[in-house]
Amino acid sequence: MRPVATTSKADPGGRLADNIVYFARTLRKAGMRVGPASVKDAIEAVLVAGIGSRDDFYWTLHAVLVTRHEDHATFDEAFRLFWRSRELIEKMLAMFSPVAIDNREKQKPRPAEGRVADAMFEGHAKQQPERDEPEIEIDARLTVSGNELLRGKDFAQMTVAELAEAKRAIAELRLPFDMVRTRRFRPDPSGRRIDPRAMMRLASRTGGQLILPRFRSPREVHPPLVILADISGSMSQYTRIFLHFLHALTEKRRRVHAFVFGTRLTNLTRQMRHRDPDEALAESASAVRDWSGGTRIGDTLGEFNRLWSRRVLGQGAIVLLITDGLERDDPSGLASEMERLHKSCRRLIWLNPLLRFDGFEARARGVRAMLPHVDEFRQVHNLNALADLCASLAGAAPRAADPRLWLDREAA
After folding, report:
1. pTM strictly above 0.70
2. Beta pairing class for 225-230 and 256-261
């Protein structure tokens, strides 16, 4: 017979409640919304559920303290560091030990690792005595400022303070004053076309005795901007900052249509019209039901083409497709839907955060099915990438953004 897992009852008089309080403070400093009521509920949940295994303890705290999908990575990293004594002791010893040369191979930072580490060791940094260092004048002509470092830093590795600074920078992005000609006309004294209707209206006032020429010219408007953003699990590190980017675009431009997709398509245009970004993101979170789930790019693009393309892709619309292209279904349908979307808009720009890796290659089936049907292929992992995107919306695509470069590279 299989042994039955035993669950030990938590001692109300022990130090577990204090540790949960300290753990909740770490989560709060790392950017999560954890209040006193949540801490009290977490302690009561542990006392009722008991402590069986590490996974049971993890999910008991997770069920109470995590209320937003984007906080999962922060909670997971904080739990790993706080409740695993071996790694915590190693970090504490490293802070008080002499610095030695580390010859080990550096690993890629984990999501939210910087925010959690800053939150856990904030007290240690404050207790360090200030040292009087001599003032040194440095020639900074060949160096970069802190602002430039922030603009080039990956969104997934930013601390809480850096994310707040990035959100303010995104809110200050300037969109180009791009205009497109429509088939409609407007009265224009300097126009080159005769306006017969305006001439007849003016002549009717004088009984037709005096007919004066009137002119018109084509009307120019801002082209619609349509954003299709992937919110699946593989894009969870960038979802919230991308929503801030969508909100900034909606606030500065009239005809902006925002859609998100994972396993289904959700229209967030109405939610993004709130002036307050936190309120807009809260409304969006309540409207979306497939946060951090799977990815069905072909099906969701097919739904967009059937239900929304004729409504929002008129008058030379520009489409921003934000996804990593990791399709789990058959990519044959994805290629046909991408081709239809490409033919329905004036310009299709694919923003892929995987381009931040130097060794990225277009070998995934979904990526290869989508690349032939886009006009530009860009990275979107930091502030510099977003600024370059906004600056290029009114101009021609740069040579580096040509998707044929990636297809030719793989063919070679």
Report:
1. no
2. parallel
